[in-house]
Write a structure and sequence with these properties.
It contains three helices and six strands. By secondary structure, the protein is α+β, with helices and mostly antiparallel strands. Helix 1 runs antiparallel to helix 2.
Length: about 120
């Protein structure tokens, strides 16, 4: 179970790093096809919408300093919740560049023997 918790925490770190690099191919591998992102504004984006916004420069991430990453794996080992709190320097949706105290509440599932993200809800902390 600890290795699953560590894998889920690493999934969060890898998502942040790939977002900074705008590595859509790597992010695509981390996200389930039915992935849903709910921004702090309430805007909902599918996996495809999120990747397109990242590649188009609508979502720009420059750095992330992690304050905490907590992963909780279900007893059956097939799903997990990842709560990441990071100070993220970003410019999104045409706004200026700022450092945000971003909390991501993520749901992950083990599919085909590997962890993928199925949902993310962003808020401030």
């Amino acid at each position: 179970m600890n290795s699953d918790k560590e894998a889920c925490a690493e999934l969060y770190r890898s998502l942040c790093e790939a977002s900074i690099r705008k590595d859509a191919a790597e992010i695509s591998r981390m996200l389930a096809d039915d992935y849903l992102l709910v921004h702090m504004t309430g805007l909902k984006q599918s996996k495809q919408d999120y990747l397109e916004a990242l590649e188009a420069g609508v979502l720009n991430y420059y750095s992330a300093e992690h304050d905490s990453i907590e992963a909780t794996v279900a007893p059956d080992g097939t799903s997990a919740r990842i709560l990441g709190r990071s100070r993220v320097n970003a410019a999104v949706f045409g706004g200026g560049r700022h450092t945000w105290r971003l909390q991501q509440d993520l749901k992950a599932e083990k599919r085909g023997g590997r962890w993928v993200l199925v949902e993310a809800r962003a808020s401030m902390y």
